[in-house]
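Annotators were shown the component list below and the corresponding predicted structure, then asked to write short factual statements about the assembly.
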Amino acid sequence: MDLRGWLDTTVCKASLALIAVAAIAGCNNMGAEKKANGSGAGSATGSAGATVKPETGPIVIGHFASMTGAQATFGISTDRAIRLAVKERNAKGGVKGRQVEVVTIDDAGKQTEAATAVTRLINDSNAVAILGEVASSLSLAGGPIAQKAGVPMVSPSSTNPDVTDVGDYIFRVCFLDDFQGWVVAKFAFDNLKAKKVAILYDQSQAYSSGLADFFEKAFKQMGGTIATRQAYTGGNLEISSQLQQIKNANPDAIFLPGYYSDAGTIIRKAREAGIKAVFLGGDGWDSEELPKIAGDAINGNYFANHYAPEEPRPEVKDFVEKYRKEYSSTADGLAALGYDAALVLFDAMERAPSLKGADLRDALAATKNFTGVTGTFSIDKNRNAQKSAVIVEYKDGKQIMAARIEK
Amino acid sequence: MSDLLQTTINTLAVGGLYALIALGYTLVYGILRFINFAHSDIVAWGGWLALTVASSFGWLVAGAAPVFAMPAVLLITMAICALMGVSIEFLAYRPLRKAPRLNVLITAIGVSLFLQNVGLLDKFFGNRPKGISALLANDVLVTVAGVELRLFDAMTIVLAIVLVVVLERLVYGTKMGRAMRAVSFDERTASLMGINVNVVVSLTFAIGSALAAAGGLLFAFRNDLRQTADASWVLLGLKAFVAAVVGGIGNVRGAAAGALLIAFVEVFVHRYISALFSGTQWVAQLQDVYVFAILILVLMFRPSGLLGKATVEKV
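Structure shown to annotators:
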């Protein structure tokens, strides 16, 4: 490499960047102050932001996601929504007068890769905060690394309770599986009048087995019975033995808290095996691929989700429209949560006195009555979001909102 | 009674699927004495190629597929995979024919990773799960004692039996088969007797890969398709490999018998053992463990497999 040339261009770039940043910072000081006042929440920490000396360059946010792998649509949806949020934010002047940059690292849906991805985001990309993951087992793999490095991590959609127990730097903007299990149980018991339910869960996923436990507990408390409880291992769908036992138990409904990649095939196979009971699922069902795999068998089944695209709230309408314009597809629940996670993070960054880990952590913890696409929520003392859930029904291969269930 | 019948049908269908894949392992091992780790990837590619072929004809829209669609897709896929198998052998394994077995084994793992990750590319099959069931409606053929025999199960069983019988005839009833057995027995002497070893080896890979393609298509009908790098393909390959070893690796009938045994344990035994222990869930959760426990048991008492001949290693 020609060192002199390299030096010249670097110095040139650096000085250009400095000028640009100074200009942006100058332009946006007023905007930033307005934002801080407008957000209202956590105003005690908001005022300190103005005194921090402006740093150079964009603020880097890391995102680790399964962009490939069996649950690829999860990562892709979330990443698209985060990038949409960042694009909008940058158009409005960014955060603290600085532009925001997202670095996404693919973990291919593997736990070891998730840990590596978080390490790389913190050490190589110098991310001030981490967004991710969707799958709880992957958040549990990445979380301890963010916690150890003192970099706040916001999981958009990991619903397993253990995720935020990792430490005080780990947050989430979705509801928890105990709530989700309860929501599905309540819907089954009250709305579907089901008294006897079979459970078929993925024993290789913390998400699935956890949700199965919470559902069972809630459903029994309401007075229902569990007809049979069967397990499968994700990816291995030679489950004729399990389906046969469910058929023999003759349940009113079947709770299938697996991911869409298995759920579609399982529902199709169950219908072919002569099982007619309605299937109930969790937010892991939320993918446009599910009805494609299951075909007609998907219709008439329900799952709990974070939002429904046709819900008549202005935030939802606005988001669905913008997302469609950008990516020409309907935003799923994971996209909505990814978007909300990014907005909550921006809000906390704006309020935090500095972008240091501890300051950002305190600002995130102080999030109160934040209104996003997936509803209005606050972060509680366990760093979880307190919110409501929707039940979505599949009709003619399309998602229809069936009910909203409050705690 | 009807429950027993249903379980038997399920067992036979799963066994047929495993048999088709196990034959590929056993054939290659029989001739070249090495385990082709890329075989399960040929199965995955077989499934995905079938989907690609079917969708390029526009047959994946419900009701659009003509009657001959399924046989056509099957034959085209088998042909493509046979070609793939031959090329892999030619490019990756043939240069190492005289090298130590370990080198070939490592190369096979390399080929496996290559196929997995190429298949993952958007230009090939992508990473999203897809279904192929629109190609053929899984209709009920007959109902006996309340048990429905469906097309996919019947097709898997019939296709497996037909292909195993054809292969058996090929290996034990034709001149080519005799050449294959001769190469398997002693490669150098066989070549001295005027047998073209390269042709025999190429043919072996072609047959094994074509069977893998059939297995891949049947698997796709049963369980839909996950991306080529998914762990489920490895598990499928592993189970078929266990079937080949349990039956006596290098033995055609043994592979079929081993596949049936594995399916029997996975479906039949699991069905009744979990009903028997319905109170204790972990018994049913060990489904995959039982399969590999059979491997250990068989290897302990019959190290050369159920139908394998015991050989004495000359020192």
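Statements collected:
1. Chain B has a mean pLDDT of 89.
2. Residues 159 and 191 of chain B are 34 Å apart (CA to CA).
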